[in-house]
Amino acid sequence: MSDDTIRLVTIGRILRRRWRLLAVLTVVGALVGFGTSLVFPPRYTTSASVLLPGAWEERELLTQTEIATSSVVLDRAAASLGWTGVSGRELRDRVSAEAADGNIIKISGTAETPERAQKLSDQVAQQFVAFAARIAGDTTDPETTSGPEALRQMVVQTSRRITELADAADPGQTVESVQGRTDLEKLRTALQEALDKLDQADPAANKANMVVMGSAARPTGEAPPTRMQLVVAGALLFFLLAVIGHLTAARMSRRLRTEPEIAAALGSALLGTVDVPAEQLADRPEGGGTRARIRRLLGVDVRWDVPAPQASGDEAGRRIRYRRVYARLRDRLPDARRLLVVVPDGDEIARRAAGQLAAEAESEPSPGSSGKGHPLLRVVEVPVSQPLVPDRDDESGALVVLSAGSWTAGELTGIAEACADADHEVVGIVLAGMVRALPARSAGRTRDAATPALAIGDHATGGSG
């Protein structure tokens, strides 16, 4: 199986076992996004287009976009709008310009309402055209002309005067009259050529005639990010953070999962493994305070990073496992009368297994009135944060029962040290695992299959006695 497949299986396990927590965090993220939308009011954006006639290079268009958002243009636009508390400096964050295809400059304005966004874009476009015309030497007053335009008008007037002089010359065919008309025609041709050269030498005269291509369209929708986008983004962000948090916690987990690691941390030998049906854990009693109820409600009281429980046999087969573990314990300590069964606090699987093991010990027949060779088991739960084991009374040692993958090496070492501090020797370790019970079979088959198992168990117990 590849790493990618393992990751997909892990994510699927998170979704199945933590869906309540993920749903709550997703709703919280959506509420955070909604609150953010209330802090930042909606914005509306629209654009006005300005056409630049003539031939323009790319760098020249970029220069015009910078001019459109310059402080001079924005200050004039703010003064023309007359909005309270809005200056050219504040408009710098609301106005942008970009060069589009076809020598078009798009000026975009953002405001709190569609009407204000439309007015802002139109006003900035008009101020940009006026300022660009002023830079190029043009003027918006049609009554006054200067520079190249005045020269053009003078050339036109001179051409007309030459025509009048040519018509007023001697219509005869004398040498003087023909020579005079020829000289006047040459003068008019020279003036026209000079004007054409002037136009070629000053292309900015044609480029100065920028045109605003109509009023900006009134926006009909909010500019991103909209309220819905913020709500969806908040929900998605919290969902992803929750999944990543689970994966990171599992990646950094130091909990021991293998039998050799657990045995080394507790400094004792493993006596065997026993099974606890998942149905028994589901029927655990309610309680534990408000915090425990909240954990059960969110589903965080069940481990997600453990594989799905495997199918197990019937109740008779599981009891055989308990009896074999107890038989190994009895063979290990033939003269013991009582043993202390230490269970880490919060390990529900181990607590169920320890209770079943103690019940099996009580059901064992005693070979004599003294009960020698059949130690009784007393179960105690020890907190792993500050482990404290009861002092030795008449117990001959401590048996640690726990589930794999639930505790770190430091926590198990602390339990072993607490046992040693209370003068209890850790005589063995029992691992408890959660399994899935198979559906019940018919009554006839159950009796036929269960009778030999119980007979073997009784015979083995009697023989060992």
TrEMBL record:
Principal localization reads: membrane
Checking Pfam families in the record gives:
Wzz
Establish whether keyword Chloroplast is in the entry.
no
User: Record's InterPro entries?
Assistant: Bact_polysacc_biosynth/exp (IPR050445), LPS_length_determ_N (IPR003856)
**Top-level taxon in the UniProt lineage:** Bacteria
> How is the protein disposed in the membrane?
Multi-pass membrane protein
Question: Region entry Disordered: which residue ranges?
Answer: 354-375
Would you identify the family this protein belongs to, as annotated? Belongs to the CpsC/CapA family.
Q: Which residues form a coiled coil?
A: none
Magnesium keyword on record: no
UniProt subcellular location:
Cell membrane
The record's keywords, sorted A to Z, are: Cell membrane, Membrane, Transmembrane, Transmembrane helix
Question: Per the UniProt record, which residue ranges are transmembrane?
Answer: 21-40, 228-249
Q: Which residues form the signal peptide?
A: none
Domain Polysaccharide chain length determinant N-terminal positions: 4-58
State what protein this is by name.
Answer: Polysaccharide biosynthesis protein
